[in-house]
Amino acid sequence: MLKEFDISSLASDPKGLQQLRYSNAKEQTPETLEAAAKQFESIFMNMMLKSMRAASSGLGDGIFDNDQSKLYQGMLDQQLSTSLNGGYSLGLAEALVRQLSVTAGFDTQTKSDLTEELKLPQRPPALIPSIEQYKPISTTSPPAAETITKVITTTTFETPVEFVRKLWPLAKQTGEKLEVSPHAILAQAALETGWGKSVIKHPDGSSSFNLFGIKANTSWQGSTATVLTLEYKDGIAERERAQFRSYSSYNESFDDYAKFLKENPRYAEVLKVGRSSQNFATALQDSGYATDPAYAMKIMAVMKNSAFSTVL
After folding, report:
1. In the chain, how many H helices and how many E strands?
2. How deeply is 112 buried, as exposed, middle or buried, from its count of CB atoms within 10 A (0-12, 13-18, 19+)?
3. How far apart are CA 273 and CA 101, in angstroms?
4. 275-298 per-position pLDDT tens digit
5. Domains of the chain, with CATH numbers?
6. I need a surface site. Which of 3, 101, 107, 229 has the fewest CB within 10 A?
7. Is 204 in the active site?
């Protein structure tokens, strides 16, 4: 003989919910409160199941999935939430009953007692991961960026791509120091040296590593290299001999470039333009960094070279 089945346990049967509403409206008792709390927990579990289904739907539909199967899947989830709520509780219903019992006057316990009861249960200590598990193997701080940048003393660059690839770390580091565009800085170095092929040299052929064409003024105490250079006076290009600063590596050249812009008041506006490459190049020209009237335009033209997009 079949055991009698309670149809009110079906999620699709509205009779149980209607009876609950009627009972609650007619007489507020601890029993109706408990039933309402369980119903609320059932709805919550159904929403949780829907969210889980929605999250997994991003993986794609199965070969047997269609609108009808999704409809029945939704009905199954709704019934599961009702059935699970009958034999298993998340603790939400009990918490609601304890809290609302005080409000409804069913329970005389104080609010402080209620707060103590409603504290979330703690996991057993053995299941709580120790913070020691997440400590790094080494607590030594990584070295500063200046100390991990490789010292570059390459005297020649075969291609613009090699120039960008090798000097980009230094340009990026300098851009961070000055808070300006590192792309524009590297483009300026490429313009001044012809992608590293025309770096100023000493009489013996050794490199000065001067990437930015910075001249040796009276305050410069380091070594120098004297060469013929092209300067513009009243828009007319003229050749003249000039002394330029010399360094032991390209790292020193970038460091001195940053110091040169920071300590010279005439370049104060250059350091206010932010990360815009166009504004940086224009400000450099306006400040008188170079006498070439097309200096900013040439820097921007260099930036359009495919070497930048290839490497960066």
Report:
1. 12, 2
2. exposed
3. 65
4. 999 999 999 999 999 989 999 999
5. 9-54+63-131 (no CATH), 145-311 (1.10.530.10)
6. 3
7. no
> pTM of the prediction?
0.52
User: What residue type is 297 in one-letter code?
Assistant: M
Distance CA 206, CA 199 (A): 10
pLDDT of res. 240: 86
How many whole angstroms from its chain centre is CA 67? 39
pLDDT at position 67: 74
Placement of tokens 């609950």 in the chain: 20
Candidate list 41, 77, 192, 256, residue with the active-site label: 256
Catalytic-residue membership of 256: yes
**Which of 224, 227, 247, 252 lies closest to 239, judged by CA?**
227
pLDDT of residue 106: 59
Q: How many Å apart are CA 307 and CA 168, to the nearest integer?
A: 11
pLDDT at site 63: 65
Catalytic residue, chosen from 6, 13, 231, 238, is 231
What is the structure's pLDDT at 149? 61
Q: How far is CA 13 from the centre of its chain?
A: 50
